[in-house]
Structure prediction request, 757 residues.
Amino acid sequence: MSFPYTDEMMESVAKVEATRAERMKVEPRRLTAEEKDALLEQYHPDYNLESFEQILVGPNKGQKAPKELVALLQGKSRVQGMHLDLTHPDYDVDVLIIGGGGAGASAAIEAHELGANVLVVTKLRMGDANTMMAEGGIQAADKANDSPAQHYLDVMGGGHFTNVPELVEKLTKDGPKSIAWLEKLGVLFDKDENGNMITTHGGGTSRKRMHAARDYSGAEIMRVVRDEVYNRGIPVIEFTVAIELIKDTEGKAAGAVLQNLETGEIMIARAKCVVITTGGAGRLHYQGFPTSNHYGATADGLVLAYRAGARLLYQDTLQYHPTGVAFPSQIYGALVTEKVRSVGAQLVNREGVAYMHPLETRDVAASGVIREVSRGLGVHTPLRDGIWLDTPMIDMIHGKGTIEARIPGMLRMYGRYDIDLRKVPIVIYPTLHYQNGGIRISVDGMSDIPNLFVGGEASGGVHGRNRLMGNSLLDVIVFGRNAGQSAGKKFREVTLTDLTLDHVDKFAKECEEAGIHSDVLSPKLLPDYRRQK
Amino acid sequence: MDNMINVYLYGKKYSVPDSLTIMEAFEYSGYQLVRGVGCRNGFCGACATIYRIKGQNTLHGCLACSTKVEADMCVASLPFFPLEKKTYEIEEIRPTQEIMMQLYPEIYACIGCNACTKACTQELNVMQYIAYAQRAEYEKCAEESFDCVMCGVCSARCPAGISHPQVALLARRLTGKYVRPKAEHLARRVEEIAEGKFDGAMADIMGKSDAEIRELYNTREIEK
Prediction:
C-alpha cells in the first residue's frame, strides 16, 4: 500500500522505523520542574505577549486576554437599537439553560429531577458540542491504589497550582459518583469481563484513572445524556442563540434575549435561574491556530456574562493540544486523541529521536513539539512542519488488533485519506483545544451575578492554567450537574422584579468612555469560512 | 497549484479544488453554513450527505466533513431527518425482547434489503445490528453499532421506516446498564467517599503550603 506522503516524508519514516526497536526498550525521561518551566516560557503560545491585549472595561479591566476575545468582550451588542418588550416574555421558566452540550444536558437532567420547569436553548443541535468530540476519556479515582487526594495532587500540579482548591476538591471527590451516574444511565465504558473499568494513564496522571468508551468517550456520554434529556421530555429549542442576558431591577439573572439562528426572530425568555453551558472558544482561532473544537465554539457565554458584570478567571490561558493533525489538509487541526500516547505511541522528530516522554502534561508536550519544529527538527509536509506520532508502536507493544480495538475512530479518520496508522506514523502539530479559564464560579456553580450559574468549559478555575486530559469530561459532568442542582434548588426562593437590559447600555457607555468604538458584533455565534475573494 | 473539478451542490455547478472535503467545497463556493455542520471531524453526524456521481446509479451516504469531493459529484445534504425516538424510563425497562417489540416494533418489518448498510456513513453493518436487536442480543447490537454517529442516512433509505440509530442507542444503554457486569470497585469507592473515608487525606493535602504541595507533586510516585 502506498501512502499520500512525500518522498521526503517517507525518508524520515525510514529513520523512525530504524530507531523503533531501540526506542521501545526505554521509556523517555520525564522533565524536571525547572526544565518544564523553561520550556513553557520559551515556547508555549500563552507566553507570546504580542497576541494578548489589555481589557479596558468591565470586571477584569486591566487584565490581559487574547486579542480576539478582547474584541468580542468589548464588541457591539446585537440588541443595540432593538426595541424589545420585556414585559411579555415568549418563555417563562424556572431554569433556562443556554448551551446543549454535555454540561447543559447534565444540568437539565438535575434541575428537572428537582422539579424545575426547565428550558434548554442551543445554538446548533442538542449535543453539537466539544463534549461529543472528547475522544480519550474521563478521569476518576476509583481504583484501589488511587484516591481523591491523589487525583487532587495531579490536577493542582497540572494546573501549576493556580487552580481554585475548593473547585478541585469537588471535581475529584465527585469523580467516582459521576462515573457511577453515567454507568447507571447506561454508558458503555470499557470494562473487563468482571466489570472492572479498564483505566489508563493520561498526560500528567500519577495513577491509571482514565476511563474510556473506546475513543468515542465523549460521544458515548453525550448521546446517552442527550437521550435522557429527551426521555424526560425536557423542552429543547435548537438553532437558537442567546444574544444577551436579561437581569431584573435587583441585578439578578432573569432570562435571556434569544434569536432564532435561521429566521432571525427575536424571543424573550424569562427565568428564575439561568445556567450558562456554552463551552469553549476554539473557533476564535487565537494566534491563527487551527482548532479541534466544534463549529459553535466561539466563547458566546463569556461575552454574555461579562457584559452582565461577571468576572472571568484565567481568560488569558488556552490549551493547545500537542497532537493536532498537521497532515493531510482535510483534517488539518483535528484532534488526535491523547489516548494514542496513553497506549504507547511516542513523539519522534524528523531524525527518529524520541525527544521527550510522550505523557508530559499537555502544555509541556505542546511546547516540546513547537520547540522541535522551531529547531528545524520537524517533518516537512506540504501543509506545515510537524512531529511524528509513532503509531505502529502500539500494536507492536500490545499485540496486533490493539489499534483497531482501542482507537478505532483514529484508524477510521486517517483511513479516509489513505493513511493506515498501523503501518506508518502520523504527523502532528499543536491545535487550539481548550479554554482553560472562563467565568469565575463558586463551589455551588454560581458566577458573580446572583442566580447565574455556569458549568463546563465556560467556567474558570477548576483547571487553573492548564487542564489534564480526562478532566474536561469530568468537569462537564460534575459541574454541569452541580449547576443544575444549584439552580434546581435556588429557583424556589426567587421572586423576580421587572426585567431590564440596562446593564447592556451601561456596558456600552463604559466602552464609549474608554474610547472604544467597535462595530464588531458580539457574541460571534459562528465562524465564517467562506472563501475571501 | 490546485486541481479544479466540477461538483454540483444541490444541483448547481461549482468549480472547486479537488483536495477539499464536501463541507469545504460548500464554504469555498460561498455558503455560510448553519445547518449541516457540526464537529467537522466525523463524530457528531450533523453533516449527513447523500451524493451520486453524475451518470452512475449508485447513491452514496457520507459525512460532508470527512469525505473528499470527486469530479461530477452531485450532492444533497441531509441536515435533519425525522428519526422516531421513543421515550422510556431506563430504571423501569429491562433487556428483554418485549421492550424492543414494544418501543420499536417496526424493526420486525425489516425486509432485508440492506439499503441501510450500504448507506451507512461509518461503514457499519447496520442490517446486522438490527437483526441482533430483533433477537434481543443487545450486547452484540451494541458492539456492532458502537461507532454510530446517528446521522440518519440509514433511516432515510429504509423502506420499513426503521429509526436504526435510536434502536442501537436503546440497545447500547440496555447493555451498559443491565447486560455488562457493574463495576464493583466503583460502587465501593462511591460509598467510601460518602462515608468520609478520604476526608482526612483531602483536608491534609489542602492544608499544605505552596512549597509543600509542589514538593509533594514533584516527588510523587507514578504508577507504571
Notes: Chain A has two domains: 7-30+320-432, 87-317+436-500. The radius of gyration of chain A is 23 Å.
